[in-house]
Structure formats: structure tokens, C-alpha cells
Write a structure and sequence with these properties.
Blueprint lengths: L7 E4 L9 H11 L6 H9 L6 H7 L4 H15 L19 H15 L9 H10 L4 E4 L4 H7 L4 H5 L3 E3 L14 H10 L6 E5 L2 H10 L2 E4 L16 E2 L25
Parallel strand pairs: 1-2, 1-4, 2-3, 4-5, 5-6
Helix pairs in contact: 1-5, 4-5
Length: 261
């Protein structure tokens, strides 16, 4: 793909700027409540309170309304979670409804947010871009009230953003991989989408940015097969610390950047 000069940068949030994915998984497991068999809860605890990769890779980047039914169905098919009242195969209560689980997940994740850390290179990249006066935005599938919790310990980084577009924004009618959220972020920055550089960790997000006409840097989860991003992203990195903006006429090399005090 041809590199062109970009005038603005748009970041995904979860898994790109903030390392929330493990906390999100932990919040999901908590949200099952008593419907999750104890042996499964212990198995997941020993694994670090993360979801199995076979389901995790399917839901990264999606809005809760889209991924919650997928997780419940996975739990019913693989963990012995009840699929109907008085399920003869289980003495456990029914799992929460989609709406109940989405609410419980958000509540649990908000409670875990004080533990969230910035992804490697995120603060350096944002600071260097801000020094160059490049307009910055966040485009996240998370709801605004969740974002408010996630930003509490990262106010300096969030303060560099000219716009934050969330999954529950009225202007975002369709979630990723639809282009809505990136079109809206570009609009709020006053920049044509073709002149925006997007940073994403999820395939659904990369597809959304592509559909919007943006340039894309993919920073996938290390468990992902990175080759699947090669045809849909301009660049695929292992970490934001590897970013070199010079091909887009952005004078940023994150690995040599120093944070301002």
C-alpha cells in the first residue's frame, strides 16, 4: 500500500492505548455469577482469568451487544452453562440475559479499571504526536461511562485528544467493522478520512478503518496470526514501540522518544 502524508491520528482504545483485555476477560467471567461451574472458574483463574483464545479472538473489538451472545453461547457449548431452565445436564442457574450480562460486565470492568495500564509505547506516541500538533482522537467500541473510568489514571494521555467517539454515541449507528465510528472521528477532527492514520489491535477495527478510507497500522494481540492483517493494514507491528512515522511524513520514532515530565 502506498504511504501518504497524514493530517490526523485516530486510536482504538482497548488493547491499543490501554491494556484492558485481561481485565475485560476477568469482568466477563465474574458476570456469569453462579451460572458458571466452579471447576471452570478455577480453570480460568489458573489461566490468569482470561478467556480461551478460540472465543477471545472472535470478540475483540466488538460492541457488548454483539459479543455477549457469542460468549454465552460458547459457555453453554463448552463449559456446561445451562441453556434452558431446569436443564437436565446442569444443576446451575441460568446465565444472565444478554442485557443483564452486558450491564454486569461493564460494572465489573469499571471496578477493575484502577488496575489498567497503558500499552507499551502508547504514552510516548501520543506525547510525540501532540508535540507536533497533530490532531488526535479515540474511536472506541466502549461506552462513554466506561471510558470515563478507564481514563482516570491516564488523564494526561486522554487530555491530548481533540475528540473521543464511543460505541454508544448517537452518530455511531453501526459498530465495527462498519466504518461509522472512524468516519465520525475524522469528521470531528475536520480531516478527510483518507488523511487519517488509525491504530488498531482488532481485525474488526482494521476493517472499519479500511471501510472508512483511512490508513491503518495494526498492532494485533501477540496471540493472533499477524499474517491475516498484511492484506488489510498498511503496516503490522508487534508493539507501538516499533512505530516509525516517517513514511507518512510524521517525524516520530517511538523507540527513541522520551516522555515529558
Amino acid at each position: 500500500m502506498n504511504m501518504i502524508k497524514v493530517k490526523a491520528i485516530i486510536f482504538d482504545l482497548d488493547g491499543t492505548l490501554l491494556d484492558t483485555e485481561q481485565l475485560s476477560d476477568e469482568a466477563i467471567l465474574l458476570s456469569f455469577g453462579a451460572s458458571l461451574p466452579e471447576h471452570v472458574r478455577e480453570e480460568r483463574r489458573l489461566a490468569g482469568n482470561v478467556l480461551p483464545w478460540e472465543i477471545k479472538q472472535q470478540i475483540v473489538g466488538l460492541r457488548a451487544g454483539d459479543w455477549v451472545p457469542m460468549v454465552i453461547r460458547y459457555a453453554q457449548e463448552n463449559w456446561g452453562v445451562a441453556s434452558q431452565p431446569a436443564d437436565s445436564s446442569s444443576d446451575l442457574p441460568m446465565p444472565p440475559s444478554v442485557e443483564e450480562m452486558a450491564h454486569a460486565w461493564e460494572t465489573n470492568l469499571n471496578a477493575l479499571c484502577p488496575r489498567v495500564k497503558a500499552c507499551p509505547g502508547a504514552r510516548e506516541l501520543v506525547e510525540e504526536a501532540a508535540k507536533l500538533e497533530i490532531p488526535l482522537a479515540i474511536a472506541t467500541s466502549s461506552r462513554m461511562n466506561a471510558v470515563q473510568q478507564k481514563r482516570l489514571k491516564h488523564e494526561t494521555m486522554f487530555g491530548r485528544m481533540s475528540a473521543i467517539v464511543c460505541g454508544d454515541d448517537p452518530a455511531v449507528r453501526n459498530g465495527k467493522p462498519a466504518p461509522d465510528i472512524y468516519l465520525e472521528a475524522a469528521h470531528r477532527l475536520g480531516v478527510d478520512p483518507s488523511e487519517c492514520l488509525v491504530f488498531e489491535d482488532a481485525m474488526s477495527g482494521v476493517q472499519a478503518a479500511n471501510a472508512a478510507g483511512c490508513r491503518v497500522v495494526a498492532v494485533p494481540d501477540p496471540r493472533m496470526n499477524k499474517t491475516i492483517f498484511e492484506d488489510v493494514a498498511d503496516v503490522v507491528l508487534d508493539s507501538l514501540t516499533q512505530f516509525d512515522g516517517r513514511p507518512w511524513d510524521i517525524n516520530i520514532v517511538v523507540e527513541t522518544a522520551e516522555l515529558r515530565n
